[in-house]
Amino acid sequence: MILITGATGLVGRHLVSRLMRESVPMRALLPERRLRRLPWDTSGPNAPEVFAGDMTDEEALFRAVTGCHAVIHLENAQWWGRRSDLERVELAGARALATVARSARVGRIITLSHLGAAPSSGYTLHRIKGEVEDLLRKSGVAYTVIRSGIVFAPDDAFVNHIASMLRISPGIFLMPGQGEVVLHPMYIDDLVEAIYRSLDRVRLVDSTVDIGGPEYLSLRDLILTVMRVTGMRRLIIGVPPYLLRWITAVYSRILPRSLMTAQWLDILAANRTAPLGSAYDHFGFQPRRFEYTLLGYLPRRAHFLGLLRDSFRRRPRPA
Q1: Residue 284: left (phi > 0), alpha (psi -120 to 50), or beta?
Q2: Which of 129, 156, 169, 316, CA to CA, is 20 to 30 A from 77?
Q3: Same domain for 105 and 240?
Q4: Could you tell me how far CA 152 lies from the centroid of its own chain?
Q5: Tens of pLDDT along 138-179?
Q6: DSSP state letters, 56-80
Q7: Which letter does DSSP use for residue 138 in this model?
Q8: Gyration radius (Cα) of the chain, Å
Q9: Taking Cα atoms as reference points, which of 197, 208, 243 lies closest to residue 116?
Q10: Is the pLDDT of residue 86 over 60?
Q11: Kindly report the CA angle at 194 between 75 and 82, in degrees rounded to 5?
Q12: Three-state secondary-structure class, residue 41
């Protein structure tokens, strides 16, 4: 039996679908507010058993982990959370999970982190992710930390937000810095495959692995690729990141959610790469290329509707 936290998030819902196809018995821990609309067929024979509770509710966590041999920890606040949300959902949640997993004798915690995560980082998102990694390493429970590059998917909050901003842009696109930051994008199905295969990889116990796609892309090249795939040509203008953070703060005061959040800019603050071929070395498969994969879905998306939906979707209420 496997417990999945954050099962309705981007990675979580794709992972649940994969595990359902493989008939893997699993549970999902979800806050009450997420139980109203689950992104999988709840009547299916392999649907996860759902437990209601928050990551900071140790009693609910203990009920959910009891009888589980592994936990896949995906709960996060990286796209919408303010600093206090990140500390509550990610850090306090991981601390509670480690406590109850040790009490319930869980075999291993597999968690998803970011390339560049470090407790000493000057960027809030990377610092919190690094502290979560350290906490799990010292928890007394076997662990596997998978650090991935930026994840792209038909329903992601990164590439789709770039396309949405291009759609409403009056001929220009404001890019953080000069676009020299190097990224290592990875397709969602490849990341899910890596997490799934990690369940049977004994050599990954008590280890941290860095993975990404088959290529490196600078931020400028990534934006140009999105323009080329969608046919939306814009003049790219480099803007100091601190100015974009100020614009983002003002924008978020006007609308419930900004497409370009502080965490979005944290991800673009430094190079985030793993060794090429890391997915094959650790998990035995070749990931998909960025532009070729985008061509399969991005041109058909209604980017203006996505902009409206994402801008007026409120942040989750604090637990």
Answers
A1: left
A2: 169
A3: no
A4: 9
A5: 999 999 999 999 999 998 888 988 998 888 888 899 898 889
A6: T-HHHHHHHHTT-SEEEE----TTT
A7: T
A8: 19
A9: 208
A10: yes
A11: 25
A12: coil
